[in-house]
Amino acid sequence: MSNPDSPNPLFNPAVLTRRVLFFVLLAGLALLYLLVFFRGISEPQGMDQAQIAREIARGNGPRTKVLRPVAIWQNQQASGGQATLEEASYDTYHAPLNPLFLAAVFKAVGAEESAAWRMADSETVYKLDRVVAAASVICFLMAIGVNYLLIARLFDNKIAGVTALLMLLCDLNWRFSLSGLPQMLMLLLFSCAMFFAYRAVENSEEGGLTLVPALLAGLFLALLALAHWLAIWIILGYIVFASILIRPRGIAGVIAVVFVLLFAAYPVFKNAEYTGSPGGTALLALYNGLGGSEDFVMRSFDLGEASLPLQNLPQKIIRTMLSQGNSLYVQLGSIVVAPLFFISLLHPFKRRSIATFRWGILLMWLTAVLGMSIYGLGTGGIHSNQLHILFVPLMSAYGLAFITILWSRLRIATEVPQLRNAHFFVVVLISAGPLLLSLPRDIRSGFSAESMQPHWPPYFPSTLNTRLTELTLPNEIVVSDQPWAVAWYADRKSIWLPRKPEIFEMLEGMAEDQGTPVAGILISPYSHSMQTMPNVFREYADFIPLILDGWATASIRSPRAGILAEGQRDIKTILARYPHPAYFNGSLLMYWSSQPVYQE
């Protein structure tokens, strides 16, 4: 590998051609994914953060229109029993940076006026969904540039260029960019932090000044924590690494701690003010990773009803950590060289800064794995707690460097000049497989209006953005099993369907007393069609007659809704106050209204 400081021929035709082709590919893929493949935001947390950002852009501060019963209970405990839905609407679940970032974007495009962004009947994608995705794609493309600079300094321009191409052709990166989740903003911040962290390592090994790069690394890591609270686990690994391996020992770690404490102080103070807990509602995500259900606890009105299973906790965490290994290849973007990072730990790199820096990456990844094990992580690649994606560029670079060293020692690579870079082509071809194989199908679907549908089930944005908005007033509340979609697309406050009918009635009375009456109940495929039937019964036990009514009416072709509620007194009593059912997009998306509904 060449010296990263050696100059490149600026006007070398071959280099210029490669760079032009790269930027053409970059622009082409960005336009395809944003304009052709995009079907709207897919993740609940993405919609939730987007609607909070819109409230910030309106000057309302970090308010949410998603009212979690447990957040209302927390506010009641913190206020001595004087809870109001307005106070409970202060968001204590999400880290603040991504909503603030999106709020600035929304302010720039005039997204505060939701009426100006109303969907037409022929539209399947909400225009503001595309704005959110475009902001994420820009962060992703900037992260590619930062990683190119970092990896060129670590190894050389060739490995940096191939790594940039691997990032660009990684299907998982694009899926995160279009999901609405903050991972691409996090990737940009993490990449900037690692750039300056490596400069600190380099200066430390060479006897230079480490204070400035350590300060900048700590700054970006603190911003990373504000983008996702789970990133604090990454920072813990960095603190250990910096305290041991960056001279003067301890200073860089202390800097990171100070920045995180300074930046997190205000959100933590507000969390304690509104919920009585410094961790706010976000801390309850623990239930998702320790064997429970986050949805279950968020829909509870009293934490005493939702027990946290702490039995055999160490074994649970270890088992979850090991299970991440089963899906690690997918979690690392299916880039074939990324897992080879772990083998590269055995190689004695000549430059001490390269050898030292990889242990920092390993420590940060291990603490991130521990955090993901505690708070929960899915196996499909896309998940709000997925932090593996942040490490993909650096792990891929080390894996590529290791492969390059092995390849250069083979006789065929030295005797046949045409094969000197053959390993790069093979790595790119295998890693880009998921994207390249799906590209023709996605292009056909994207240019076919009939096949390019939203993420249904469970979301149908046009129905919520038009019909539900028309049937409700701005001061009214909708109770729903997908409150984030109601809040984002319909721009209405929405209470997450509580676990018990008596809590429903209590919250209903609270809303009426505070001048924000409940207008109706929306039941979607999120509750009845996105998980197994045993899980549906476990999650929605007392509301099963309401949850499964759409399937029941469809299965017997009944013209009358509410047939399952006939034998359930509590549900029948509730539906008596919302006696006007409307079928949205068939019987699987049903709205029970307190007022007569014109059925299209």
Protein model, in words:
With 600 residues, the protein is mainly alpha-helical. The chain folds into two domains: 13-38 and 129-446, no CATH class; 456-600, no CATH class. Helix content is 60%, strand content 4%. It contains 30 helices and six strands. The protein has helices at 13-37, 44-57, 69-78, 85-88, 97-109, 127-154, 157-168, 171-179, 183-206, 211-227, 232-245, 251-275, 286-289, 294-298, 313-326, 328-331, 341-344, 352-375, 388-408, 411-415, 422-431, 433-446, 461-471, 483-490, 501-513, 525-528, 533-539, 544-547, 549-555, 569-576, and strands at 66-67, 477-480, 493-496, 518-523, 580-584, 589-593. Strands 1-3-2-4-6-5 form a six-stranded mixed β-sheet. Strand 5 (580-584) and strand 6 (589-593) form a beta hairpin. The radius of gyration is 26 Å and the shape is globular. The termini are far apart. The relative contact order is 0.11.
